[in-house]
Amino acid sequence: MAASLVPPMLDEGSVGNLIATLQRSLYPRPSQGFTVRLGILWALTGALILLALSYLLLHALRSKERPRWKSLWLVRVVERPGGSYVVMNCLPVWALSAVAYGVYELLYTGLFWRVYVLQRPQNVMNGFRSFDGPALFVCGWTISWSGLQSFLLATESDAFYLPSARLANALFVGGGLFLLVLNLGFAVATTVLADKIIQRYEDLLGALQALNERLAGRVPIPEDFLPIQAPAEAFARAAYNTRM
Question: What secondary structure does DSSP assign to 167-187, as a single string?
C-alpha cells in the first residue's frame, strides 16, 4: 500500500498533493450554488412542518370531543366484535410523521452543510446519515398501519382475506418491532464502520502531515514513505470493509 502512495514522479509538492487528494476523498468541495439549493430545501421543509402543525391545530379546534386536545390521541385499543384492535389515529399520525421527519431532515442537512461547506468533522453527521433508514421506517410503518387499521375498523368484515384482530396486532406491534430492531442494527453497524474510516483517515492524514513537516521542502525519496505504510493499509482495509 505504501508503494501505491508513492507518485511516479517525486518533487517538492508530492506529499502536499497526496494530502490534498486524501482530504478531497472524504471532504470534497460542494458545487456552485450548493448552499442556495439547501436553503430552498430548508424553506420547503420548514413550510411542510408549519402546514402539518397548522393541520393538527385545526383538527383539534374542529373536533367535537371535549377537551379538544383528546382528538389528537395517537394509540388506543378499540373493541370490535372480532376482537380488540391496537389502532393509531391516522390523521394526527400522518401530520406528526411529517413534522418528525421534517425536523430530522433539517438537522441532517444542516450537519451535511456544516461538513462540506465549513469542512468540519463528519462524525456526528455519520450517525444521522446511518439512522435515516430507521427514521423513515418508523414514519412509513405508522402511516401505513394507521390507514390499514382504519380500513379494518370501518369494514368490520369477516372475510377470510382480512387479518383477524390478533394477527393484525401481532403484525403491527411484533412485526414493527422486529423490523425496527433490524434497521437499528444495520444503522449501528454502518455508524461503527463509518467511524473507523474517519479514525483511519485522521491517522493517515496525520502521518502525511508529519512527513511533510519532516521533509521541510526537500524532494522525498521512496524510503520516506515507509512510515505511511501502516496507516495507509489500515485506511484501505476500513474503506474495503465499508464497501462490503
Answer: HHHIIIIIIHHHHHHHHHHHH
Give CA 57 to chain center in angstroms: 29
Q: Which of 95, 88, 91 is nearest to 53 (CA)?
A: 95
pLDDT digits (tens, 9 = 90+) for 16-46: 888 888 888 888 888 889 999 999 999 999 9
Beta partners for residue 86, in sequence order: 77
C-beta separation of 91 from 59 below 8 A: yes
Beta-bridge partners for 78: 85
Longest dimension (CA), the chain: 86
- The residue ranges of every structural domain in the chain are 2-243
Question: Closest Cα to residue 48, out of 122, 100, 87, 5?
Answer: 100
Query: 194-234: per-residue pLDDT in tens?
Result: 899 999 999 999 999 998 898 887 888 888 888 888 898 89
Q: How far apart are CA 191 and CA 198, in angstroms?
A: 11
80: β partners: 83
